[in-house]
Amino acid sequence: MTNLDIRHLWHGLLQGDESLLYRLHNTLYTGILAYGLKFSSDRELVKDAINQTFLYLWQKRDSLPDAQSPQAYIFTAFKRRLIGMLENRQADPSSSGWPDTCDEPAETSHEQELVHRDDTFRLQEAVSAAIALLPPRKQQLIRLKYLEGLSYREITVRTGLSERTIYNKLHEAIKTLRAQLAGTDTPYPSVLTAQLALR
User: Fold this and answer.
1) Distance CA 8, CA 13 (A)
2) How far apart are CA 70 and CA 114, in angstroms?
3) φ/ψ of residue 104, rounded to 5
4) Has this prediction a pTM greater than 0.85?
5) pLDDT tens figures, 92-145
């Protein structure tokens, strides 16, 4: 999904379209989750931070800016919330980790946006190169699942493979991609899903 597409979803959020909020959440979820796991290995905490970030954006939609790079804006908002939750947990281990407030992130600078675009491009290049090394069948399944967004049942109809076979081959493919990308200097080596790079 291009930045233009994400901006369309962002504008929908600003205008109070709840369905576009969910689409924005679903589109960015995988990338934000991987990004959050770089700061904390607590997957549930990271997931909570993601959901709370989007809840905050929905509640504050009337005062949010018309960001040129909504994705960078959302990542910044999420990072601040997650760090706040981690700091709260450190200060009080018995707490849930929820920060009382979440400061609105400042609009990213032009330089930050260029760095983000460069990082995304390098990730796309690395994942595309890694996918090209997979057997043709696994490449096909990766694209059907993560680019076209088909369900396992729909992929079964398309390929004639059983759902269990599709699941196993995708699991093997992602495991291979993870191993290949772990040795690169890609900005998000833990993302390791074709979904982010292929959209």
Assistant:
1) 9
2) 14
3) -70, 130
4) no
5) 554 444 444 444 554 445 555 555 555 555 666 777 778 888 899 998 998 888
